[in-house]
Amino acid sequence: MTSQHLELPPIEVMPKDLSAYRAGNRGVDYVHTFDSGRPGPHVVVNGLTHGNEFCGMVAVTHLFEQGIRPLRGKLTLAFANVDAYHNFDPARPFESRYVERDFNRVWDVDTLEGPDATVDVKRARALRHIYAEADGLLDLHSTSYAVPSMLIYEPHAKLDPLVRHLHAPLHHVILPGVKHSGRPLIQYGAFGNPDASPLAVVVECGQHFARSSGEIAIAVAMRFLDFYGLIPADLAAQYKAEAGAPKRYEVTDAMVARTDHFRFAGDFIGFEELPAGTLIATDDGEELRAPDGGCTLVMPARRIVKGRDAVLLARRLS
Q1: Would you call 255 helix, strand, or coil by DSSP?
Q2: Who is most buried in 199, 201, 215, 259, counting CB within 10 A?
Q3: What is the pTM of this model?
């Protein structure tokens, strides 16, 4: 494992005590489902897929504290990888992304039904039936570096109405079946099936520890609930999307660290546009360069882990 950019960012948000939310009503700790008693969709707002990505914690606790309940259907509020969250150390703020395995790279059947006994996979197994019930999933994330927030989704026509409704963040990153170091949650089960109705998107709300990231997460969560008709129109109107045309990027490849000697060639933070042939990184002496046509870097990792995604390569669409 190696680290890039060793200067620590300001920590404007610290973990809250979540013990009040531990005893849920679904037989799984830190998961609560509220049933309106009326027909409608089951919508999940998911925070803490990664333990040090506090914006999801901020948004989900806000929904609890404001007493948000669905006008129709069901609303589930979930804190996902709480064990990783509890490991947070402000002196080492990037070390609590997960405990043993990236919770957002274990959503394939072989892993979920295999022998893996890591804390993170056990938690995924406990939560999988919750996600499988969902008609809509909002998975709230944040980034290591202070880059524009992003709406991340797959290129399925079924997602078009939701993407139009959310609109912002104004950087859209499309994942057309790129092979990652593991399957992310938004590709789990029916979410990843273009012919099935359940929808899932990720929003990267900004830098992990920035107060503004939590504010973005709250606003996106409210627009997500509004899309499904779960909150009153006057409440939704307070969270209108930022105006403007989105910048759209399509991910073409995931650069995975082959060895413990992976090193970036520059101080990349994300959305750098590199001409063809530009040196991106070296991996145990192997030079890794921008492909023909060039590329845009998306979410370079601060902590490089052998066998895990180091950076996504994308091309600008609009």
Answers
A1: strand
A2: 199
A3: 0.96
Res. 177 pLDDT band, cuts 50 70 90: confident
Rounded-to-integer distance, Cα 4 and Cα 17, Å? 30
Distance between CA atoms of residues 35 and 46, nearest Å? 17
Cβ-proximal residues to 70 (8 Å cutoff; 6+ apart), any chain: 34, 35, 36, 40, 43, 225, 230, 231
Element (H, E) at 148: none
pLDDT > 70 in the chain, percent: 97
Q: What is the 3-state secondary structure (H, E, C) of 60-85?
A: HHHHHHCCCCCCCCEEEEEECCHHHH
Strand partners, 200: 137
Q: What is the mean pLDDT of the chain?
A: 96
Nearest to 72 by CA among 44, 45, 109, 35: 35
Q: Please report the domains of the chain, with CATH numbers, ordered by start residue.
A: 2-239 (3.40.630.10), 248-316 (2.40.50.630)
Element (H, E) at 298: strand 295-298
